Amino acid sequence: MRKSKLRIYLIRHARPLVSREGLFSKAQAEQYLKDYQVAEVEQILPQPGHLPLTQVKKVFCSIMPRAKATARMLLGEEVELVEDAMFREFENRIWGLPWAKLPLSWWQVPSRILWFLGLNQKEIESFREARARAAQAAEHLIAEATQNGVAVLVAHGFLNEFIKRALVKRGWHVLVNGGRGYVGITQLEK
Predict the structure, then answer these.
(1) Which domain of life is it from (predicted)?
(2) Are 180 and 15 in contact (CB under 8 A)?
(3) pTM, whole model, 2 decimals?
(4) Domains of the chain by range and CATH?
């Protein structure tokens, strides 16, 4: 008799309702990051087809409102929601010249690159620490899948990507790569 395969689903939250339009000063880009953390999300329609909604009794999620709201929209009120700070997004802080006014991505991309290089991590988690946290999160999801056959996480783009990498290193196979787009669902199996 063949043993059924274990599955893990990594889901990115829905699009936050916060505007990225226009030019931002450094202070405005920093405020955008704060607003993004607490923003509501847009409605999700239609429901993704490859998510096993009837099998999911518990979903892990980030402590951030956008992840919790997405989990509820996708999986309903009756599913047990397990919030854990381990599943929060990789931290970020804006780096740059305070007098400049630039598109938001011009603040975010260099700030993130410098963070990856270890040059923009003052008072926040380092990239090395964040990767270790993602590996720990992967182990947590493996334990859940081993016990219940399936594990579902609603979290964030960078975190999900590094959890996926940790799972692949541990022998899991990507069946569906949802990428880092909003409500992107990555399905892995072992």
Answers:
(1) Bacteria
(2) no
(3) 0.90
(4) 7-189 (3.40.50)
Q: Token digits for 139?
A: 């182990």
At residue 93, what is the residue type? R
Which residues lie across from 8 on neighbouring strands? Answer: 151, 188
- Per DSSP, 180 falls in state T
Please check whether residue 171 is in contact with residue 190, taking contact to mean a CB–CB distance below 8 angstroms.
Answer: yes
Paired tokens of 18: 């916060």
- pLDDT values of the chain reduced to their tens digit, one per residue, 190 residues: 346 899 999 999 999 999 999 999 999 999 999 999 999 998 876 666 667 766 788 999 999 999 999 999 888 888 899 999 999 999 888 988 888 899 999 999 999 999 999 888 888 999 999 999 999 999 999 999 999 999 999 999 999 999 999 999 999 999 999 887 899 999 999 9
CA–CA separation, 32 and 24 (whole Å): 9
CB 70 within 8 A of CB 57: no
Q: Which tokens hold the place of 79?
A: 């599913």
